[in-house]
Design a protein that fits this description.
The protein is an alpha+beta fold. It has 7 helices and 5 strands; from the N terminus they run ααααβαββααββ.
Length: about 230
């Protein structure tokens, strides 16, 4: 009973942390663009009669800002429900996400071993692995100030190892508990636990962060839910 309550609490905590990060992304992106747009339109209305050229230039700039904001919003929607992940599987989903991430952040991404994952896994396994990778990438961008990110997938029989390494500023392991909660590693470990696997985080100041997920490619029997993506055994 206690374990069940702890598991439920972990799920709720993970959901709240994800909602917080989404709210932050919306506030820093689309919400800020809309606030700027409202201010710009108000200014243009005041100058319309006396300074039409200034208004034209302002509206042109606003048009570009709104288009950029729309692209940002579409990216958030894609991150929430990655289309290729559902349609084509883990490798294609990670490939597309990495391409969009690199374009959005100007961070160079290197992917290794994706071609070894061609069969479909259960929806729960695929989305859990994808979300862990997504969280590690976003940390490299938002917190680590990284220039390069490397993701490598390896498989041994029915087990997977995913290693994500960045060249960012890293953090002090002596402050790991507070830092890892702030960076979402607690939620990542919850997802690894769901898979029956483990997640390790290695870092030193000035030497980047390495996230290592080790997990079976099938859910534990107690959590198995034979979904539409799971291959027959």
């Amino acid at each position: 009973m206690i374990n069940q309550i702890s598991a439920q609490a972990a799920i709720v905590q993970t959901q709240e942390e994800e909602r917080h990060r989404l709210a932050h992304a919306l506030q820093a992106g689309p919400a800020q663009v809309l606030a700027n747009a409202a201010l710009e339109i108000e200014t243009c209305l005041q100058l319309m009669d006396d300074q039409p050229q200034t208004v034209r230039e302002g509206l042109t700039l606003l048009m570009h800002e709104l288009r950029a904001g729309l692209d940002n919003l579409r990216g958030l929607i894609t991150d929430l429900q990655p289309p290729l992940l559902e349609d084509l599987g883990l490798a294609a989903g990670l490939q597309k996400y990495a391409e969009n991430f690199s374009k959005r952040t100007n961070i160079t991404v290197k992917l290794i071993g994706l071609d070894t994952f061609t069969e479909r896994l259960s929806a729960t396994v695929e989305i859990s692995i994808f979300r862990i990778a997504q969280e590690a990438f976003e940390n490299a961008y938002q917190h680590a100030q990284a220039q390069h990110v490397r993701l490598e997938l390896n498989r041994t029989n029915n087990n997977l190892t995913m290693t994500i390494t960045d060249d960012g500023k890293g953090f002090d392991n002596r402050q790991a508990m507070l830092t890892e909660r702030r960076l979402g590693f607690v939620a990542m470990r919850d997802r690894a636990d769901l898979l029956g696997g483990t997640l390790q985080v290695f870092s030193e100041p000035g030497h980047g962060v390495q996230v290592v997920l080790t997990a079976p490619l099938r859910l534990p029997v107690s959590q198995s839910e034979r979904g539409p993506h799971e291959t027959s055994k």
